[in-house]
Amino acid sequence: MDRVIIVTGASSGIGKATADFFSVRKWKVYAFSRKSQVQKHTNIQHVVMDINSKESIRRSIESVYRKEGRIDAIVNNAGFGAFGAFETSSEEDRQSMFAINVFALMNMTQEVLPYFRKQMSGTIVNVSSIGGLMTYPLFSIYHSSKWAVEGFSESVHYELKPFGIKVKIIEPGATKSNFNSESLQEYQNSLIKDYDHFVNGLKVIKDQSFMDAVLPETVAETIFQAVQDPSDRLRYLVGNRRSKSLALLRKVLPSQWFISILQKRLNLN
Fold first, then answer.
1. Which one of the listed residues 146, 166, 187, 236 is annotated catalytic?
2. What family, per the record (predicted)?
3. In this structure, which of 72, 104, 229, 240 has its CB flanked by the most CB atoms within 10 Å?
4. Which residue segment(s) compose the domain that 226 sits in?
């Protein structure tokens, strides 16, 4: 029997790579996205879903279960980033970020849980970011959304273990995907001149990071490994050596030491 997986944000980047990766490994993939997609693989079914509508989410997941009689895994990948000083962000900026990066992920998880509990099995993969472990200036709303994903995922990890349901967090570093261009939005009038001093330091870090950024297919492979992993491991970091080094330093150094290192990299001292 083919195993069944749902992937959100599956029209491009990590989501598309994940759908393709599972498809060639004989999984039945339901690729959820906002727009209809051309059917290229016989075992990928594209589903148009409004990620901001709980009713659309409920109907879409229910239709998969009715058709297949099971759901083995779900990958909550839909999300976007935004750039700009917090002072210039609008309430709408903040609400739209959390609506997709956090609340849609929670709604997807909530709607699939009755089926997973009935099966006493299932894997929830939440795509976070290295930005859920550490922060840079001018990304405060994005970082806060990813820290919310980290906290939510870790908490439900405990809640769902008795039902045989696994929760996995994927933490990509710099990745070559549309997220770096199309999905990285800038707040309107995003930089008051008083914040200009952050920009050059961030530009250097961005250029360094994306010089050897990992491919979406590399992240997809990590997602596949996480779904296949029978252990209770929660977090899976994937990225270039620079991303992994920063994550390790964040973990082992006292907080103020790590902050000092970042301030130096950003020329803020």
1. 146
2. Belongs to the short-chain dehydrogenases/reductases (SDR) family.
3. 104
4. 4-195+214-240
